[in-house]
Amino acid sequence: MSTTRRGRAPLRAASIGLVVCGGTLGAAAREGLVLAGRHTDGALFVVPLANVIGAFILGYLFEALTRTAPAPERTRRSMLLVGTGFCGGLTTYSALATGTAALFDDSRIGIGLAYALGTVVVGAGATLLGIVLASGLHDRRAADRHEAGGADS
Question: Is the dihedral of CA 115, 103, 108, 33 positive or negative?
C-alpha cells in the first residue's frame, strides 16, 4: 500500500531515521548547554537559550530552502533532519512550561510571566532574524551570480 487513507505517504524507515539522528544531535546539543549552564545556575538561562537558537535555525532553514529550492527530496530530507529532528531535540517548550509553573508555584508570578513571554517574543524575533539573514544571503548570492554573468558577456 503506497498511501494511507487520507492520501499521505506512510512513514518510511529512512524518514524516521533522519528525525531520530537529528533529534539525537539536537538533544545532545541541549545537554551540552545544560552542562555549560550549571556554572551559572542555568535553569532559567539554558531553556530559553535552546529555544531561541532552535527558533533561529528554523527560520533560517525554512527561508534558505524556500529561496534555493533544491530538489524536493533533498528539501524534505533537510527539513526532517534539521527542522523536525535537530531543532525538535534542541528545543524544549515543555521544560519552559514546567519552569514557568514552578515559578508560579513559588509565587514568583512576575518572573514567571517574563520568563515565558520573553522566551516566546525573543524566539519569534530569532525566527525573523533567521529569515532575514537567509534572505539576505540568497539575494547577495543572486546579485553576485548576475554580476559574474554580466562580466562574461
Answer: negative
For cell 537559550, name the residue. Answer: 49
* Entry pTM: 0.78
How far lies 44's CA from each of 29, 87, 101, 103, 124, in Å? 17, 19, 12, 10, 18
Nearest one of 87, 113, 89, 86 to 100, comparing CA atoms: 113
Percentage helix, strand, coil for the chain under 3-state DSSP, each rounded to 5: 85, 0, 15
Tell me the pLDDT band of 128, cut-offs 50, 70 and 90.
very high
127 and 59 Cβ atoms separated by less than 8 Å: yes
